[in-house]
């Protein structure tokens, strides 16, 4: 490859902005997830309690009579 061809390819790569918005949205979502995790450290135990209550209600309903429950 000549130097001119390499320079043209570098310019094309720098001008290509496809996918840039998706990357920005992914970075924002990751930042928000980290910020929420840092700001609300006790939310995990609260969610666990809610899901445990829901599971305890659904287990008897899902029981098919054989003693085994498909929801676990």
How would you sum up this structure, described in words?
This protein has 72 residues and is mainly α. The protein has a domain at 23-61. The chain is built from three helices and no strands. It has helices at 3-15, 20-39, 43-62. The mean pLDDT is 76.
Write the layout of secondary structure elements.
Layout: H1 3-15, H2 20-39, H3 43-62
Short description:
By secondary structure, this protein is mainly α.
Helix-strand category = mainly alpha
What is the ordering of alpha helices and beta strands?
HHH
Which band does the percent of strand residues land in?
A: under 5%
For the termini, the CA-CA separation is 60 Å
How large, in whole angstroms, is the Cα Rg? 26 Å
What kind of sheet is the major sheet?
none
Q: Helical segment tally? A: 3
Q: Residue ranges: pLDDT <50 for 5 or more in a row?
A: none
Net shape: elongated
Number of strands: 0
What's the overall average pLDDT, rounded? 76
Portion of residues within helices: over 70%
